[in-house]
């Protein structure tokens, strides 16, 4: 008999697991997805010839095999694009990743002096032992100094997470921020040092019709290989017997259905997974599930009757007076994102689900955003054709200072059952990129293919896949 594998969640991780499993004839694979189409956070929404992703997605990876497989699947539908990003602040544009030379040329003499002085103070302090990297603020100040933290990193991070950076773990910073060495740039400006400093990968792959096209095509492959993908299906209960998961119950149009399983690959939010066990033990973990929070995101998608707005893939907005944290022009990734001769703007607005920003009327958010764009020098008010909002409830796992303690407790409980593994961004409560999520799903599938099961330590390793505390965007196959 075929092994019955149930995959919870049809995002990059879950679909990649099913994609891999369906290559083998001995598995009966079913994906359960709560939304109406595949992709999870990597969905592309289309309206009147305009395409908008749920965020600033792109495909980069250091994994040559993964890149080759995706390229083979996508064929001529996969483009190669180049990233160009800036920070808009105080009427000026700063390069991102931050360039020390660019900062020195943009900031006033007094601010430059303070930035360099604070940097040198921290450099000397660190040589003498320094202070621990407990919080995001600690990590940044220890490496950049207080001035640059106050100007760039602090305000943006507080807007993104909705809490002070003193309450955010340093784990987030270590994989996301390229080190900017001010003494290094002085030596380079004086001609006393050569070589190329470390930076982010610039080139990336992107589907012609939006990032969602990749997962539309992946789901088509799954279906063609006799797998199943169930949409509008919300997981309600994990049914166990002893230390085994026997079946999964899910809601479809108000009707509860149940599917038997030999193994479960879960990519739904870790907190939702634990609550779905619906027993006394899982109820006792309430303090841990309640302690892990996700930050929601509202996207204001604006269709514009102009050929272009800028040459930037991303424009970051750190100042607190503006609602958005990031401005994106989808056309910079693919010319197919808008009708010929037109363009669009997507504004990323972090918020909490059901707060005032989340619930505000489209017209009110649009007017506030267009006013902000005017202030930032992006004047599109007279060229707007239409606009609409899209929403993500589980956008960013909030890295509170004690998040990892609660996270590990929940993973231990989930993996205490013999035939379930939790993986992916929401499933592991880690802010990981798309390619890492895909690798997690594929690794889970391959271990099942090779041994039909996985020991707990193997499943724990999948949860911590690529968790090294170093910049994860430095190198990619396309770079």
Helix content: 25-40%
Largest sheet: 7 strands, mixed
CATH topology of the largest domain: FAD/NAD(P)-binding domain
Q: Please tally the β strands and state the result.
A: 19
Number of helices: 18
CATH superfamily of the largest domain: FAD/NAD(P)-binding domain
> Kindly, what is the distance between the CA atoms of the first and last residues, rounded to a whole number of angstroms?
45 Å
Q: Give the overall form.
A: globular
Strand content bin:
15-25%
Give the count of structural domains. 3
Known CATH architecture of the largest domain:
3-Layer(bba) Sandwich
Write a structural description.
The chain is of the alpha/beta class and 479 residues long. It folds into three domains: 155 residues, FAD/NAD(P)-binding domain; 151 residues, Polyamine Oxidase, Chain A, domain 2, CATH 3.90.660.20; 92 residues, protoporphyrinogen ix oxidase, domain 3 (Orthogonal Bundle), CATH 1.10.3110. Helices cover 36% and strands 24% of the residues. The strands form five sheets. It has a seven-stranded mixed beta sheet with strand order 7-6-15-16-17-14-18. Helix 1 runs parallel beside helix 9, helix 1 runs parallel beside helix 17 and helix 5 runs antiparallel to helix 6. The longest helix has 19 residues. About 3% of the residues have low confidence.
């Amino acid at each position: 008999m075929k092994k019955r594998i149930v995959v919870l969640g049809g995002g990059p991780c879950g679909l990649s697991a099913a994609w891999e499993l369906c290559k083998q004839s001995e598995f009966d694979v079913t994906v359960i997805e709560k939304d109406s189409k595949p992709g999870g956070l990597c969905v592309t929404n289309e309206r009147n010839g305009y395409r908008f992703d749920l965020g600033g997605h792109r495909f980069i990876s250091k994994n040559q095999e993964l890149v080759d497989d995706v390229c083979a699947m996508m064929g001529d539908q996969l483009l190669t694009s180049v990233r160009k990003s800036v920070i808009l602040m105080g009427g000026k544009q700063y390069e991102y990743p931050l360039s020390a030379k660019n900062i020195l040329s943009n900031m006033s003499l007094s601010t430059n002096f303070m930035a360099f002085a604070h940097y040198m103070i921290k450099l000397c302090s660190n040589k003498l032992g320094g202070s621990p990297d407990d919080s995001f603020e600690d990590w940044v100040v220890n490496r950049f100094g207080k001035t640059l933290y106050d100007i760039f990193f602090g305000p943006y991070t507080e807007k993104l997470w909705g809490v002070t950076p003193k309450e955010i773990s340093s784990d987030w910073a270590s994989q996301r921020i390229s080190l900017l060495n001010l003494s290094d740039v002085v030596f380079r400006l004086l001609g006393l040092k050569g070589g190329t400093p470390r930076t982010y990968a610039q080139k990336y792959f992107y589907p012609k019709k939006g990032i969602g096209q990749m997962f539309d095509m992946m789901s088509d492959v799954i279906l063609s290989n006799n797998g199943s993908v169930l949409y509008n299906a919300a997981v309600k209960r994990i049914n166990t017997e002893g230390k085994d998961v026997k079946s999964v119950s899910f809601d479809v149009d108000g009707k509860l259905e149940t599917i038997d399983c030999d193994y479960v690959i879960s990519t739904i939010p870790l907190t939702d997974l634990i609550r779905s066990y619906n027993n006394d033990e899982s109820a006792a973990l309430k303090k841990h599930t309640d302690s892990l929070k996700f930050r929601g995101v509202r996207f204001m998608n604006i269709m514009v009757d102009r050929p272009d707005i800028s040459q930037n893939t991303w424009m970051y907005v750190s100042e607190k007076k503006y609602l958005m944290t990031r401005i994106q022009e989808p056309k910079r990734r693919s010319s197919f994102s808008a009708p010929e001769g037109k363009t669009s703007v997507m504004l990323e607005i972090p918020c909490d689900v059901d707060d005032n920003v989340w619930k505000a009327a489209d017209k009110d958010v649009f007017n506030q955003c267009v006013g902000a764009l005017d202030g930032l020098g992006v004047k599109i008010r007279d060229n707007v054709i239409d606009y609409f909002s899209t929403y993500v409830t589980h956008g960013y796992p909030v890295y509170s200072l004690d998040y990892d303690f609660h996270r590990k407790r929940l993973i231990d409980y989930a993996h205490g059952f013999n035939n379930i593994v939790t993986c992916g961004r929401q499933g592991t409560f880690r802010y990981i990129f798309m390619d890492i999520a895909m690798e997690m799903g594929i690794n889970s599938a391959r271990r099942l293919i090779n041994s039909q099961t996985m020991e707990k330590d193997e499943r724990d390793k999948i949860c911590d896949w690529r968790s090294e505390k170093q910049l994860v965007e430095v190198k990619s196959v396309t770079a």
